[in-house]
Input
Amino acid sequence: MFDSLSLKIEKAIKNLKGQGRISEINVAETTKEIRRALVDADVNFKIAKDFTDQVRVKAMGQNVLSSVSPGQLLTKIVNDELIELLGGDQKDINIVGSPAVILIAGLQGSGKTTFSGKLAKYIKSKGRNPLLVACDVYRPAAIEQLMVLGESVNAKVYSEPENKNPVEIARNAIKFAKEHNHNVVIVDTAGRLSIDEQMMEEIFRIKQAVQPSETLFVVDSMTGQDAVNTAKNFNDKLDFDGVVLTKLDGDTRGGAALSIKSVVNKPIKFVSNGEKLDALELFYPERMAGRILGMGDVVSLVEKAQSVYDEEEAKRLNKKISKNNFDFDDFLGQLQQIKKMGNIKDLMAMVPGMGNKLKDTDIDENSFKGIESLIQSMTPSERQNPEILNASRKTRIVKGSGKSIQDLNKLLTQFGEMKKMMKNMNNMKARR
Output
């Protein structure tokens, strides 16, 4: 997401580099390019114009310090304005009540049901006991899909397959939650069209019946400006509390994320960037602005690392590394920890300066699988003592893994070099 927009904004701001000062002419040229980049990203033209007008006004009122270039100053101004455009401060969901009720609404195919499962997992990670409620009585297999998701995240699902009244199902679910100690209820509703008055009236009645502490509107970010128009229609009827943007990993230009707050004046609360149930993030305007401007998002990267960090395991590994006993079992464990953090390309894009460099880079998410299969085809003694690998052992390993001798030799060489580097680092520490 935002790859094309990032490149165009970066290119526009580069026009100011080498300039000795900010002038009305060079700022006008730069903001014109930024406005064009925003419109190309499917941002509403009025929003794009208002944004660049604000940037121009602020830029012309600034004195350029000797230690700051005009390009750096404009980057700071654009960054500040992007943060405001995206919503300003981060807003979490409001979970109050006994039980707290979260109502999920959105268009057909927007990813509401999958998001409901992801949200249940997120809420469980906060120490709560969520109940998923199947109120989509129209879509074939909707209840079954929610059941599968609930099982995947170890969350109870309430359904009434024979009942075709979603308002009644929602009411009964609240009663069930109180009786079975579920302190959060997530109500997954049927997808609907904003022009379908009957369906819009139905979800309004569900909201009246369950009195949610939070109503979230789920929107497919790949629909761009259409998503914003739909959000406005839903908000006029439902007065929802926040927006969830799904499918950010797709080929989307980012117009929905950049426009939606201005149009409905409701914050984006979550973004989803994959089908995996842990592919859900709180939305931080400041961090997203940094990504758009190619400044990375180190805070999110650190948080992802911390989420899979095991302090006891780290101590054990440090002890093994200090004794130069790091083996393939340890290496395999570290690979699996990295995979838990998410998509490798997305992680690398969080490193400052790396985002645009990765735009046309093909990073194979399955590249770890070959390494894993080679290590898993080794015996415990071979993993701990790779130096015992002779020709016959190597032949057995490559047959078991489906890889080649060249692949295995490359892995052994890289692993050997890594161990040498660890040993040299230990020696340096010892001399201090």
Summary: The CA atoms of residues 74 and 171 lie 53 Å apart.
